[in-house]
Design brief:
Chain lengths: 341, 341
DNA sequence: GTGAAAGCGCTAACAG
DNA sequence: CTGTTAGCGCTTTCAC
């Protein structure tokens, strides 16, 4: 059996409560006794049992982090930052993957509820109602979603999408495609709205294709549909889809950005590794992870329910350029033909 | 306050031990009582407190998963598979990141020890001694490392490296480079040995460059050094480095595979997304994650300490091809000149 | 089949 | 400053 507080008490000739205090309220114990206790504890290899402590204090010093898909490269930097940040504050983190399934998501929150001091919900696919329901069982901080009254950290993809579309418009593109993401994604809606509004305001056309799974294969599979629209530029829900599209276009000998420009969102590591390097909207995922942890841990102290909006940046690389040179006033059909050829 | 076993007992008119039994040993309780208890529990929203249960049973139903770097794309598929598999067996998983630091690694094991039933150590950077030491505090399963007497799951990179080198030799390459990984990596040693032995046996030359951090920037930074060796083919410690090298070579107008062939290891998602697509050794990371979880959970039952060796597969894509065409018997210097030009 | 009681490892009043 | 006592939520003997 592992060494307990009792063993330390016996070995150092004090009562167990003194040992307890040595660890949980050191200032309440005589420096001499303290160092003696600490010494024997060290020697015996004693480590407080957090679970037992949690039982009485009500604080587990654990947090939960629920994401849609660990293997989606968008999440790991966020997970890493959150975990490192939490550990620095002496918290351990449970990580769980919902596989984009809202039911699994809800189950997970409930299963974890008793073992954690709070949960970070990353890009949740549940309904607002469900989230508010669960919030009564356990403190929640939501990432990449805005729900009134709920603490949240969002990366301002709306603004990112606007920058991206403006960039495309500045290059002369008049017909864009938005390759939309999965159903139930709050982010997806925001991007779509922002992109649509920006294009419309400039008198340009924006065709929405989707929904799609947020993976590269979906981007690749959409290539034909994209070409069929006759658009000369594409904004994708995320980099994965953008990269899939990029390669599928090149495999069809469509030049990027010569004939079609492509913009992604997220700035995952791979977007710098592909050629042409992907123009994309950089999301501060690591900062978001840290901010969310801070928010969750503060929630206990005061009852604050702030909402943080993190700035996103358009990173212009080599997958965007001027639209194909066409006679002014060409019809959509002509553009399509031109692009396809 | 949350609803406890006591609330359920009161509400259903039975003693708390009956409620307890209803959840932990249902067969010991009258079916009628059981369903009544279950009903009120359901209605009150009761969920057993695992921490309290763990205190007495000694089983937390949690496991720890410690990896070198969550953001390294090699790990997320493994983490995902392990987490999903564990959850299916009703286990939650703590994920932690050591940032490639053996000290952090050891601390983490000790910090997690009391809260878990066991820990999965993924590509540990600690010494064998340290690991064996820690093993006495908590059940351990090691992934990607072989230590006698310790349960382990390894992906057979040695065999993978042999296949890769043979593939290169078959294409006619006579001088190879191994771009080695981080110090302290067991995998790195295995690859190096296997690659060296295979090359030597065929009378070919293998130059080892390194150590390197296992990131794409390190691969890119090694481009000059690689060219300076005059080798016509490179095996890299992992795909990230291989991809970095790939791009750096192309940026210098060195054709891949025309002038230099490049092989990676891992088969991360990005290796299929870059052009040319990367020839690489596919590691069954997801299978490894699941196997390790199974091993850890069985360890409690019997005292088995098996070691599983998972097969790796060479995936031939487009970054490898015949070496540059040269007059037979060209000197190394000539080859270097040719390749550089 | 169910209740009573003890106790897992620890903290939190309360005395002294 | 330190010891005493009660008890967090739950399981597990042991009687009945």
């Amino acid at each position: 059996m592992a060494v307990t507080i009792r063993d330390v008490a016996r070995a150092s000739g004090v009562h167990i409560s003194t040992v307890s205090r040595t660890f949980s309220a050191p200032h309440l114990v005589n420096p001499e006794t303290r160092s003696r206790v600490l010494a024997t504890a060290e020697q015996l290899g004693y480590r407080p049992n957090r679970a037992a402590r949690a039982l009485i204090t009500g604080r587990t010093h654990n947090i939960g982090l629920i994401v849609a898909d660990i293997a989606n490269p968008f999440f790991p930097p966020l997970i890493k930052a959150a975990e490192t940040h939490a550990r620095r504050r002496d918290y351990h983190v449970f990580v769980a993957d919902t596989d984009e399934d809202p039911i699994v998501e809800a189950d997970l929150v409930q299963a974890l509820a008793k073992q954690v001091d709070g949960i970070l919900l990353c890009s949740p696919r549940m309904s607002d109602d469900q989230i508010e329901q669960l919030r009564r069982e356990v403190p929640l901080v939501v990432i990449n979603r805005m729900i009134t009254g709920l603490p949240a950290v969002v990366m301002d993809v709306g603004q990112g999408a606007r920058s991206a579309v403006r960039h495309l418009l500045d290059l002369g593109h008049r017909h864009l495609v938005y390759l939309s993401g999965p159903r139930g994604s709050w982010t997806n809606q925001k991007i779509r709205q922002a992109a649509g509004a920006t294009a419309r305001a400039a008198g340009a056309e924006l065709t929405v294709l989707g929904p799609h799974q947020p993976v590269s294969a979906a981007g690749a599979a959409a290539a034909e549909a994209v070409l069929a629209t006759g658009a000369t530029a594409v904004l994708a829900y995320n980099d994965l889809m953008a990269i899939g599209l990029l390669q599928a276009l090149q495999d069809r000998d469509i030049a990027v950005p010569g004939q079609v420009s492509v913009v992604g969102i997220d700035d995952i590591a791979a977007s710098e590794l592909v050629r042409p390097q992907l123009t994309t909207v950089a999301n501060p995922t690591a900062a978001a992870g840290r901010a969310a942890v801070d928010m969750l841990l503060q929630q206990g102290d005061d009852g604050s329910t702030g909402q943080i909006n993190l700035h996103t940046d358009l990173v212009i690389r080599n997958s965007t350029g001027p639209g194909p040179f066409l006679p002014a006033g060409a019809t959509t059909a002509e553009v399509a033909a031109y692009v396809k050829e």
